[in-house]
């Protein structure tokens, strides 16, 4: 019963947050801080409705330079509510072009200045990546990327796609990993307290002076650090 009530409340919240975000986007379209505000509109009420306790330790993320590539693990659609509370100032994300067809959310996602990537066309995808690289270099705006490319279901992280790391090297900006503990399989949405989630950001990984020859090593290092952090957080929650 509680699960059904929560899903109903979340559906209403999704629509209301989408309407507020869309209004914000219409008032100041493509502003680089729209994404952070919209993320909070979804995340903070959503965590309360879902009964989640989210504990954050993201000092390296808050202390970042204006422009960086933020790489996070991608577990489920609930990531919007879980990770939205730590999206920093002047940060946009990269999403699939199909998002634009979602009522309210798709339109506000676009108006918030996020990048819609059409993976069905190599040319359009490359053009979008070039625009994103210029954004990093010229607008002091960071890019949030789920480098796995798809949801991992709360298990081991999937192999990373190259795009985020190519952008970071091309723009010469650091990479900041953001890790959320594995929560999807532990959530109990039919309980008042449905679960605890830890979020941590790791020290920045510099890319200045790197070339595409360094790409495999950079991807492996970021993946290794993140997987190690996620396992440590999972162990900490299990022992608690």
Automatic annotation (TrEMBL):
<keyword id="KW-0012">Acyltransferase</keyword>
<keyword id="KW-0594">Phospholipid biosynthesis</keyword>
<dbReference type="Pfam" id="PF01553">
    <property type="entry name" value="Acyltransferase"/>
</dbReference>
<keyword id="KW-1208">Phospholipid metabolism</keyword>
<dbReference type="GO" id="GO:0003841">
    <property type="term" value="F:1-acylglycerol-3-phosphate O-acyltransferase activity"/>
</dbReference>
<feature type="domain" description="Phospholipid/glycerol acyltransferase">
    <location>
        <begin position="68"/>
        <end position="183"/>
    </location>
</feature>
<keyword id="KW-0812">Transmembrane</keyword>
<dbReference type="InterPro" id="IPR004552">
    <property type="entry name" value="AGP_acyltrans"/>
</dbReference>
<keyword id="KW-1133">Transmembrane helix</keyword>
<keyword id="KW-0808">Transferase</keyword>
<protein>
    <recommendedName>
        <fullName>1-acyl-sn-glycerol-3-phosphate acyltransferase</fullName>
        <ecNumber>2.3.1.51</ecNumber>
    </recommendedName>
</protein>
<comment type="pathway">
    <text>Phospholipid metabolism; CDP-diacylglycerol biosynthesis; CDP-diacylglycerol from sn-glycerol 3-phosphate: step 2/3.</text>
</comment>
<comment type="similarity">
    <text>Belongs to the 1-acyl-sn-glycerol-3-phosphate acyltransferase family.</text>
</comment>
<feature type="transmembrane region" description="Helical">
    <location>
        <begin position="164"/>
        <end position="184"/>
    </location>
</feature>
<keyword id="KW-0443">Lipid metabolism</keyword>
<dbReference type="InterPro" id="IPR002123">
    <property type="entry name" value="Plipid/glycerol_acylTrfase"/>
</dbReference>
<comment type="pathway">
    <text>Lipid metabolism.</text>
</comment>
<keyword id="KW-0472">Membrane</keyword>
<keyword id="KW-0444">Lipid biosynthesis</keyword>
